[in-house]
Write a structure and sequence with these properties.
13 helices, 4 domains, about 25% helix, alpha+beta, about 475 residues
Amino acid sequence: MFNVDYKKLRLSFNEFHDVSDKDMPQYGEYCLLELKTGDYTAGGWHPSGDGSAAAGFFLRGTADSVDAKEVARWHSLDRYDLTESLEEEGVNWINLGPEEEGVRNVQFEGFKSLADRKKPKEEQFCLLIMKDGSLAAGRWNKWRRSAGGAFIYSSALASHSSDKVWAWTPLSTDEFFAMELEREKEKKREKELNKNPTADPELFKYGTDINVYYEKALEKLREEFHWATLPMLRKQTPVWQIAPLHGQYVFGQISKNYYDDSDVVEPWTEGATADEFIDFLCRYTRDAVEHANPEEKFKFGTDITVYLDKAFDHVKKDYRWLDKTMLGKTWQYDIQRVDGDLEFVRRFGDERKYSVYDVESAERFIECVEYDYQSAALQANPIVASYSPSFGPISLHGWNLERYDFYKLKSGDYKVSVTAGDRVTGGSRDFFITPYCFEAKTYEEFLDRYLEIVPDASFGLGKKELLPDKELQKFLGY
């Protein structure tokens, strides 16, 4: 590594170009910028028009740029390699360009190293000396839920990895960094206010234990739903808590700030008394309680095999090749007591832990199991032939139809796979063509039944496109 002590190092920038002279850098060239306010930042040059005028902007990051009208002078960062100077012991001053009388000169010092665990503040734009001896700049962005970070310097989060930066020093405060500083100040003020929060006696006349309020709501709900329990109330998420906000206790829902994992409290605002909040809790949790009647949910008892056998027998009627050995790698189900209440639970394959599978009735649970068994059956039935009907551009609710493929399976059955997407995302879905469809005597009658499973309004191809397709007719055995 370099022999220079970065703590004593000064960089002297001497080759500034005046924007007023319409003397601009090359497209994309990254530059140190002196703004008309006297502040310093950096960015990559993006001219507008044919590039003959000093019009355009210096790009610093996604939605982060500086208009050329705000810039007084620029100095290239791309054209220098400091390796030779940094390898020379005792160097503490490096000139970038000849230092002459009348030449604009700006010096930067106070360099720090990430290797010494010295990190910029979030959103701080910094001048960088890279480990390969080059100069760069970027806005510090701490990785969420991690000790690391990177310096963003262009769009689409293009960044300089922290492990490639030798030393850094901050440039001037800009609007993004100023907003971040204000946010940090607000967090500190909020933390100070919340050290000793007060409680409105009308709002918290039953104390500041949220369980008391849930229990009182439970008492009311049991007048209508005798099976109600506290776990049922807490299924309606997010749950309500009592938390300090601006120095006062509030009923609120707490979420995590995406950027820094700090708590965000959304206060309850629909009333001003404890009893009004309890009535609100009854309304808020009513639906979860109403649809958690154990007599409906476990109407076939508490032996999970009863439910699984019903699902298996129903799926087996159409998916004739299905056997229970095919289900080992799919979801595994059980009925267990969770927080005092019986619940359907499931885990995938060989996973250790079960998670609650929240359904409101035995019938709904069986339907969900059937879907999983159908998927397992299709995965276990190899494809032996395929046919793809031709089609022109088809737009489906903002998505474009990309693929529409018929497959013949080893068992002699058929399925169809439909793929649609847009410029950003997409997805595929398989449909089993049930034996009922093939009980039709004619191809046209077959399509009538088939299009009930894969309707043209939802998936793009209908009778108009499929009926004339003789190759498809033959592929399907008609």
